[in-house]
Specification:
- The protein is an alpha+beta fold.
- The chain has a domain of 147 residues: Peptide methionine sulphoxide reductase MsrA (Peptide Methionine Sulfoxide Reductase, Chain A, 2-Layer Sandwich).
- 34% of the residues lie in helices and 18% in strands.
- The chain is built from 8 helices and 8 strands; from the N terminus they run H-H-E-H-E-H-E-H-E-E-E-H-E-E-H-H.
- A 6-stranded mixed β-sheet has the order 7-6-1-3-2-8.
- Helix 3 packs across helix 5 and helix 5 packs across helix 8.
- The longest helix is centred in the last third of the chain and has 17 residues.
- The protein is globular, with a radius of gyration of 16 Å.
């Protein structure tokens, strides 16, 4: 179902509690995964990571609540600049994925730490070209790596999780070099924080923040970093 049609349908329903709308399969998918065995600590300084894991509203909000993250931006990756537009991306024919660009202080949180959070609470990496109600290649799981080190860490962590069989199915997350990242339209930025009671957000995205706080209290910060005050 198209996300806008889904939102329209959900709006007709009573607003639920933060976790009550998540189905059993989704709830069971949220668990604290083992730390990456390959997780080099950088000497410091700001770095960027681009991750695609379904609807960017929830993923963007998750990383906005992570200690060490200084910026979290919803956008598009994998396609051409001229097609980095929500209406076009939503057709599933532009090669873009809805993605989030995370700027982080590597002295506080590592790229491997971000991947651990990503796979533990932000997405289900076993779903191919979809994420819960959202279907299409624009909702695929993909890590758009920046540099050889990110590529090595990402590939090693996926192999580690698959070998440990922490998920009931094989991880389908792709690892690709980032061609470019294009920020999404303004109304998509901080969407969860601006629309906390929208039924789609309540049902599918607010639970991610609950799990982040519960599973990673050492990395969780109550006040998120927002693009606009």
């Amino acid at each position: 179902m198209d996300r806008r049609a889904l939102i329209t349908a959900l709006t007709a329903l009573p607003v639920l509690g933060a976790c009550s709308g998540r189905d059993a399969t989704a709830a069971e998918a949220n668990k604290k995964l083992p730390a990456p065995t390959l997780n080099p600590r950088a000497a410091g300084g700001l770095q960027k990571a681009v991750l695609a894991g379904g609807c960017f509203w929830g993923v963007q909000a998750v990383f906005a609540h992570v200690n060490g993250v200084t910026r979290s931006v919803s956008g598009y990756a994998g396609g051409a600049r001229e097609q980095a537009d929500y209406e076009m991306v939503s057709t599933g024919r532009t090669r873009h994925a809805e993605a989030v660009e995370v700027t982080f202080d590597s002295k506080v949180v590592s790229y491997g730490d971000l991947l651990r959070i990503f796979f533990s609470v932000a997405t289900d990496p076993t779903q191919l070209d979809m994420q819960y109600p959202d279907q299409g290649p624009q909702y695929r799981n993909e890590l758009f790596t920046i540099g050889d080190e990110q590529r090595r860490v990402a590939q090693a962590y996926i192999a580690q999780l698959d070998a440990a069989r922490v998920f009931p199915k094989k991880i389908v997350t792709k690892v690709s070099a980032l061609p470019a990242f294009y920020p999404a339209e303004d109304y998509h930025q901080d969407y969860l924080f601006n629309n906390p009671r929208q039924p789609y957000i309540v049902m599918y995205d607010q639970p991610k923040l609950v799990h982040l706080k519960s599973l990673f209290p050492e990395l969780y910060r109550a006040k998120p970093v927002r693009l606009k005050a």
